[in-house]
Write a structure and sequence with these properties.
By secondary structure, the protein is mainly alpha-helical. The chain has one domain. The chain is built from 5 helices and 2 strands, in the order ββααααα. Strand 1 and strand 2 form a beta hairpin. It starts with 7 loop residues before the first strand and ends with a helix.
Amino acid sequence: MKLDNPYIEKRAGSYYIYGTRISLASLVYAYLDGYAAEGIQECYPLLTLEQIHGALAFYLGHRAEVEADLEEKRERYDQQRQIIRSADPAFYEQMAARRCEFLVKT
C-alpha cells in the first residue's frame, strides 16, 4: 500500500522504502545510532540521498506511529526468541558457555 509519501510504502504490515526491499526500520535504527544520511547511504548504496532524506522525513513526521510499529515488532521478536529458547534450554546454555570461553580467549 503506497502511502501519501513518494518514498515510503507499507507492505505486509511493515514500512519499506518505496520500490525496494529495504525496510524503513533499517534506516531508522541507523539514524538513531547517529548515522547521517551519507553514512546510511554507504550501508545501503542502492538508495539515493533523496530517498534516505525522504524516508527520514517520513519517520520524523510520523515518529509515534513508526516507533509504535518498531516496538510491536521488538516485542514479537522477543516472544518468539523466548519460545525457541524454551524449546531447547540446554543448547542455549551450552552456546552461552562457549561464547564466554571465546571471549576469555580473545
